[in-house]
Amino acid sequence: MKIGIDTFACDSGNSGIGIYTMQLLKRIPPSDALFELFGWEFDRFTFSEVAPNMEFIPKCRYTGNFANSLWHVFKYPEFAVKRAYDACFFPAAHKMLPLGSPCPSIGVVHDMAPRWKARSPGRYAQSFVRAVLPNALRKLGRIIAVSQWIKQELIEITGIKESLIEVVPNGIDTEVFHPRPRNEESVVLIQPFSFRRPYILYASRIAHPIKNHVRLIKAFNIFRERTKFPHRLVLAGMENQGAKKVREIAAASPYRSDIFFTGQFPHKSLPELYSGADIVVIPSLYEGFGLGILEAMASGVPVTCARAASLPETAEHAALYFDPTDEEDMADRMVTLTTKRDVYRECRRLGLERAQLFSWDRCIEKTLQIIHETVGR
Question: In the chain, what are the domain boundaries?
Answer without folding.
Answer: 2-171+360-375, 187-355
